Amino acid sequence: MIDVPAGLADRRRLGEDWAAWLDRLPALTSTLLAEWSLRPDGDPLHGFCSLVLPVRGPDGPAALKVSFDGDDESALEHLALRRWDGTGAVRLLRADPRRRALLLERIGPHDLGDAWDVEACEVVAGLYAGVHVPALPQLTTLASVVERDDARLGDLPRDAPLPRRLVEQARSLTPDLLAPGGEDPVLLHGDLHYGNVLAGRSEAEPWLVIDPKPLAGDRHYEPAPMLWNRMDELGGSAYDSVRDGLRRRFHTLVDVGGLDEHRARDWVVVRMVHNALWTIDDARAQDRALERGERDWITRCVTVAKAVQD
Fold first, then answer.
1. Active-site pick, 191, 211, 218, 266
2. Interatomic CA distance for residues 175 and 209, integer angstroms
3. What domains, with CATH codes, occur in the chain?
4. Which of the residues 55, 234, 276, 289 has an alpha carbon 20 to 30 A from that of 107?
5. What DSSP state is assigned to residue 134?
6. Which long-range CB contacts under 8 A does 95-101 form with residues at least 24 apart?
7. 23 is catalytic
8. CA atoms of 126 and 209, how far apart (whole Å)
9. Minimal CA–CA distance to 44: which of 36, 34, 54?
10. What is d(CA 183, CA 181) in angstroms, rounded to the nearest whole number?
11. 246-267, pLDDT tens digit by residue?
């Protein structure tokens, strides 16, 4: 039996679905190892909602990933990886979507977390062209997700800890962003940030993306995670504020990625407001006050949304 890492086991506090999956996980992993003729080849790792086990099989080293089966965002990960087929991304070797199990080529272990933020933004923006291929018809559309969240914004109480100006701005931007007649939808990674880019397989492919949360939509939606992650590194001197650092990242992503600045900016605003909304709604659904960490996250969302605007 595989021991579940403590950080992943801690997700048990998130509810009965998590607890049930964590109870099944060791036996499920052992079954997959046996069925796919794999043996462990290192200590288990984890993301927020997945176990990643280094393994060795008939074709050499690989990584077995088993994801939480209650997470809709990862349900179609295998489709994105199969579509990319190793171009700019980790290669998928085998998949069992029903059990949320993937066998991946082994890459890394280093990610972009230690790279200077501008350098990291240049790397990520340079990967956009490879991963933003024509969208698959099976994917959830960005428009459907954004329209749902926009409707929820209309029900947000006026005393919610989110500036009404930003709420109204996000709602006013959404129709234009979703209006037909723009670029054809592409396959979006959905969560492309420093930790989801690992050292690649060769000098010609030094960095590869992992862990997509795929959607079909506008490529300008992609930059926001590179702004809200690693914000604690910004504003370390009197000459460089958090706002300056966020704008530096944003313009690097736009310039290197060949994005339209205004459209990318508008998507950042909408996405950060929606991120804050999810946190507020989670607390409302449980009829409780926001926790300190949740309030800090909402503040981060507001800071990013404001920083990208003139």
1. 191
2. 30
3. 6-105 (3.30.200), 112-307 (3.90.1200.10)
4. 234
5. B
6. 96/32, 99/28, 99/32, 99/66, 99/69, 100/66, 100/67, 100/68, 100/69, 100/74, 100/75, 101/28, 101/32, 101/64, 101/65, 101/66, 101/67
7. no
8. 11
9. 54
10. 7
11. 999 999 999 999 999 999 999 9
